[in-house]
Amino acid sequence: MEIKKYNEKYKEDVQLVCKMTGPGECMTDEKIAAYIVNTYCNYYIENESENCFVLTDDEDIARGYIICCSDFKKFKNGFKKYLPVIKANAGKNIYEVYGEYLGTMLFSHSYPAHMHIDINYEFTGKGNGTRLLNELIGHLKSKGVKGLMLIVGEGNAEAISFYNKNGFHTLLKAFGARIMGMKLN
Predict the structure, then answer these.
(1) Using CA atoms in the order 20, 79, 139, 150, what is the torsion angle rounded to 10 degrees?
(2) How many CB atoms lie within 10 A of CB 12?
């Protein structure tokens, strides 16, 4: 497994990983898939690809990724163009989108960058998540970004443990989610 900078050739692979690691309906319901991919993937790879890295297998297929917005102000302006597709497909999940947006906005002064990481199940538990995270952290530090955050479901104990082990701390628990952050400078 190799970590590479994201480029356009990995777009479909990354979108597939996003769907495969999302809710089970992503693989069978086009509306749910459109909501998930446009909420958690497309903005980052289409607008901030310089902050995205992929985990590739021996056949150069992306099997995981870490994608990031390095500055919430840029995200706030660019994400607007994805909202019509998200709203049309999210249904009751639209509150989750607004919660994520408000959560990242709340701490954006101290933690201007936020990230999403997903790895296909068969490639987890092998240190790949830590490798992806370290790649992103090194990249953000080189850009002078002062803090990184993420939002994780409160019921996802495995992910919370992973983030704690890798230096994140809890900023806020609310509405079944946890906002976690890490200072980078």
Answers:
(1) -60
(2) 11
Q: How far apart are CA 44 and CA 13, in angstroms?
A: 14
pTM: predicted TM-score of the whole model, two decimal places: 0.91
DSSP H or E stretch at residue 2: strand 2-5
The one-letter amino acid at 37: V
**Cα 166 to Cα 6, 107, 115, 154, 174, distances in angstroms:** 22, 19, 14, 17, 22
Mean pLDDT per 10-residue segment, the chain (185 residues): 95 94 84 88 95 96 95 89 83 74 86 94 88 96 96 90 95 89 93
Q: 30-40 vs 83-90: helix axis angle to the nearest 10? A: 140
